[in-house]
Amino acid sequence: MDKFRIKGGCRLEGEVVISGAKNAALPILFATLLCEEQVTLHNVPQLKDIGTTCKMLEHLGRELEVQGETVIIKAGKANDFVAPYELVKTMRASIMALGPLVARYGEADVSLPGGCAIGARPVNLHIHGLELMQAKMSVEDGYVKARVDGRLKGARIFMDMVSVTGTENLMMAAALAEGETIIENAAREPEVVDLANFLNCLGADIQGAGSDTIVIKGVERLHSGEYSVLPDRIETGTYLVGAAVTGGRVRCTHTDAKLMESVLAKLEEAGANITTGEDWIELDMQGCELKAVNVKTAPHPAFPTDMQAQFTVLNIVACGTGHVTETIFENRFMHVPELIRMGAEIELEGNTAICKHAEHLSGAQVMATDLRASASLVLAALVAEGETVVDRIYHIDRGYQNIETKFAQLGAKITRFNDRS
Ligand SMILES: CC(=O)N[C@H]1[C@@H](OP(=O)(O)OP(=O)(O)OC[C@H]2O[C@@H](n3ccc(=O)[nH]c3=O)[C@H](O)[C@@H]2O)O[C@H](CO)[C@@H](O)[C@@H]1O
Ligand SMILES: C=C(OP(=O)(O)O)C(=O)O
């Protein structure tokens, strides 16, 4: 199993190229199941989750050509409608095969994703929305099964909770449904907008993405197209926090400040000097004092849960005390015990982590438990005295392209190894 060895104490300095967004590329790849003509995707990040999704599409019968960050999904039909447990268990986003398969082929069996480290993450909203679109839904033998004779029917769907992949699954299904679908209390994340833009570029008729009401007029078929995935705002935020905690200066390129206003506002509140251009963001911490901030996660445009663990580290390095409140997932503080092993002073009170300034963080052997928790351990290791070994970094490979190369280019002392090397 791969691990990272990180020697702390370096200031990060330089430029880092941001990859395409995992959370946009995943639904877009699943959405290609809706279309039987060739689709070319650019800026697809090279990640484990993307590899799993490509395997899933191939398993379902599609032929793919991957050339670096370009993925070509060749003209052809899906010839299997089962997303098996072996593939789904490694990636919860596989549930997004459900909407496209049932919309295009009238049947889909998708293994129920298991519980994961950050919370139970049920899929009841996905199931209920498809039921409203007249699909016959059942859960049998660990699989969500959807069946419909002919096309799905447009429906008015009120989402009880704001769900990102729930909104995306239903939007994909509605793209080929008969009639109009209105999704209310929809997720407003930029990745939902990117998926809508992609589908519209293939001939779908989706209005309102980015607001809480999305109106989809179903069309009979989608045509071929070419699309470039939007930049990863969470990867961007992670490198900016890296600059902030090490007192450095980092420019993220190929990114977009408009995607991450809440995060940039919190970084400024923490004392960072931020400048932005058309496709870059620079954070300069030189001569600035890092101050703890209070953050509370909530659906977009509020502060993203996927940046919570990184800001926990920011707060333990900063002066003062910062409160980090998680309102989206019930178990997303798995990084806290590991940070405490490195010398952090963090108290957990319900869904709030009270983070005090740590006089001294020291390197330790720590365990990655989920994607962003892993990123936070890498950030803490950059400022800790001595050497940190981060185990189980397969979690980080799900969502950060070449993270050790990118951090090393910025001056970090980080190497990947495994017990055999
Ligand atoms: C691939 C992808 O895009 N993943 C992102 C997506 O996950 P994902 O789409 O899985 O997260 P959701 O937005 O669905 O989850 C939000 C909340 O709704 C609950 N819920 C969701 C669906 C459902 O049917 N029933 C239900 O109760 C969840 O348990 C959670 O408490 O949004 C999360 C919240 O921004 C991010 O952390 C993930 O990185
Ligand atoms: C929780 C995340 O992803 P996923 O929904 O794919 O587990 C994440 O990107 O932080």
Describe this structure as you would to a colleague.
The protein contains 14 helices and 24 strands. It has 421 residues and is an alpha/beta fold. The strands form six sheets. A four-stranded mixed sheet has the order 22-23-1-24, with helices on one face. A four-stranded mixed sheet has the order 2-15-17-16. Helix 1 packs parallel to helix 7, helix 4 (98-105) packs parallel to helix 6 (164-175) and helix 10 (308-317) packs parallel to helix 12. The chain is elongated. Bound molecules: uridine-diphosphate-N-acetylglucosamine and phosphoenolpyruvate (PEP). Phosphoenolpyruvate is lined by residues 23, 92-93, 306, 371-372, 399.
Question: Could you name the key traits of this structure?
Answer:
single chain, 421 residues, alpha/beta, 14 helices, 24 strands, binds uridine-diphosphate-N-acetylglucosamine, binds phosphoenolpyruvate, cytoplasm, cell wall biogenesis/degradation
Layout: helices, strands, pairs:
Elements lengths: L1 E6 L5 E5 L4 H10 L7 E4 L5 H12 L4 E4 L2 E4 L8 E2 L1 H4 L9 H8 L1 E5 L12 H9 L3 E5 L2 E5 L8 E3 L5 H12 L4 E5 L5 H12 L3 E3 L5 E5 L7 E4 L4 H13 L3 E5 L7 H9 L3 E4 L3 E5 L10 E2 L11 H10 L3 E5 L9 H7 L3 E5 L2 E5 L8 E3 L3 H13 L3 E5 L2 H4 L5 H7 L3 E6 L3
Parallel strand pairs: 2-15, 3-14, 6-7, 10-11, 18-19, 22-23
Antiparallel strand pairs: 1-23, 1-24, 3-5, 4-5, 7-9, 8-9, 11-13, 12-13, 15-17, 16-17, 19-21, 20-21
Helix pairs in contact: 1-2, 1-7, 4-6, 5-6, 6-7, 8-10, 8-12, 10-12
This protein binds uridine-diphosphate-N-acetylglucosamine and phosphoenolpyruvate.
